[in-house]
Specification:
- There is one protein chain.
- The chain is of the alpha/beta class.
- It folds into three domains: 3-112, Tetrapyrrole methylase, N-terminal domain (Cobalt-precorrin-4 Transmethylase, domain 1), CATH 3.40.1010.10; 116-216, 2-Layer Sandwich (Methyltransferase, Cobalt-precorrin-4 Transmethylase, Domain 2); 220-315, MazG-like (Helix Hairpins), CATH 1.10.287.1080.
- It is 49% helix and 15% strand.
- The protein is built from 15 helices and ten strands.
- It has helices at residues 19-27, 50-55, 59-77, 93-99, 114-122, 139-142, 158-166, 197-200, 218-236, 238-242, 249-267, 273-296, 302-315, 318-321, 332-349; strands at residues 3-8, 30-32, 47-48, 79-84, 105-108, 132-135, 148-153, 175-180, 188-193, 207-214.
- It starts with a strand and ends with a helix.
């Protein structure tokens, strides 16, 4: 049976690269998940999968393709080494996918991760402090119903930081400790206000966040309850259970039209905002139900929908999220042309 030995190359400092990983690279054909790591130059003969990050349409497809290539290489060589940034036991989706494979032997060698350095810098015992670790790229889903101390990993770009920022809506948002490039000469640790998170932080792939006390949010609690209700309806209600994406289209159109009608009544002072809220709720239920069906299929969920429209709005409003303060705000006409140009570029890229 072919074999894949998985190791880590530490959080970034050369002195934290395990000797076991160096030995693996000397003894076996070696593959790096990415060369986007300060110590990747120590493994000059290793091949990386960086090309997949450019060619695949989603991160999950990148990971699936990496696993397929590794299985093929192991079949051809017998035994190969697979080295990952940090530790192979921390936030490594490809390791989980490899462990699901039945036709290859998997050996995992633990190593130091960025978490070890983070606890030292923060002077925090994660067990005693009951710290929760969440993925910045899935922040809004992972914090549902969550409070207390949180370390947010994989905060690699401003889109992720913007996504994190809008996920919490409270009167007194927390102060965040930003930890960057731990263990390197360029290590940087500083605090920033929540509202400035995507403005005052220049993120990279070695950035994580510490939130000493994550507040409970009314909006996230309401969405949590809605998600739970829809899930129960799909499990227990015969009508809801038999619905498909296509079967809901007629009702979706009807609810959208009723929202339009309710807006018209409000604008003409013939209707109430309570009526508009009710109609918007009916429309939101359809979105939640469509998302629940996608979640059951393992394709997408409500968080993906929210994240997708959030990222699109950030991309299409550079005059808000990426504007030089010295640059005048574009006119409405210029903004309309800008929107068309960005949309066309997105469609061409797709």
């Amino acid at each position: 049976m072919p074999k894949i030995i998985i190791g880590g190359i530490g959080p970034g400092a050369e002195n934290l690269v395990p000797e076991t990983s160096r030995t693996l690279a000397r003894d076996h054909p070696t593959f790096l998940r990415t060369r986007r790591h300060p110590c990747a130059q120590l493994f000059t003969d290793a091949k990386s999968f960086d090309d997949l990050y450019e060619s695949e349409s989603s991160v999950e497809k990148v990971y699936t393709s990496i696993v397929e290539r590794l299985l093929s290489e192991a079949e051809g060589h017998g035994t190969i080494a697979y080295l990952l940034p940090g530790s192979p036991l921390v936030a490594e989706r490809t390791v989980a996918l490899l462990r699901e494979q039945e036709d290859v032997a998997i050996e995992v060698i633990p190593s130091v991760s960025f978490l070890d350095l983070a606890w030292e810098r923060l002077r925090v015992d994660p067990v005693a402090g009951r710290v929760t670790i969440v993925d910045g790229q899935n922040f809004e889903n992972e914090i549902i119903g969550l409070t207390g101390p949180v370390l947010v990993a994989q905060c690699e770009d401003r889109f992720v930081l913007s996504d994190i920022k809008v996920s919490i809506d409270v009167d007194k948002p927390p102060v965040v400790t930003v930890l960057q490039r731990l263990g390197l000469e360029s290590e940087n640790i500083f605090q920033v206000g929540w509202e400035q998170l995507d403005r005052d932080v220049d993120p990279d792939h070695l950035t994580c966040l510490w939130v000493a006390e994550l507040p409970a949010t009314t909006t996230s609690d309401a969405m949590t309850h809605l998600h739970a209700v829809v899930g129960r309806l799909r499990a227990e209600c015969p009508w809801d259970r038999e619905q498909t994406h296509a079967s809901l289209v007629a009702g979706l159109i009807e609810e959208a039209n009723e929202v339009v009608e309710a807006i018209g009544l409000v604008e003409s002072d013939l209707g109430s905002f309570d009526g508009l809220i009710e109609e918007l709720g009916d429309l939101l239920f359809h979105i939640a139900l469509q998302s629940a069906i996608g979640e059951e299929k393992g394709i997408f969920d409500l968080g993906d929908v929210a994240r997708g429209i959030h990222d699109k709005m950030v991309r299409r409003h550079p005059h808000i999220f990426d504007r030089d303060p010295e640059t005048p705000m574009p006119s409405p006409e210029q903004l309309a042309e800008q929107w068309k140009a960005i949309k066309a570029a997105e469609e061409h890229k797709a």
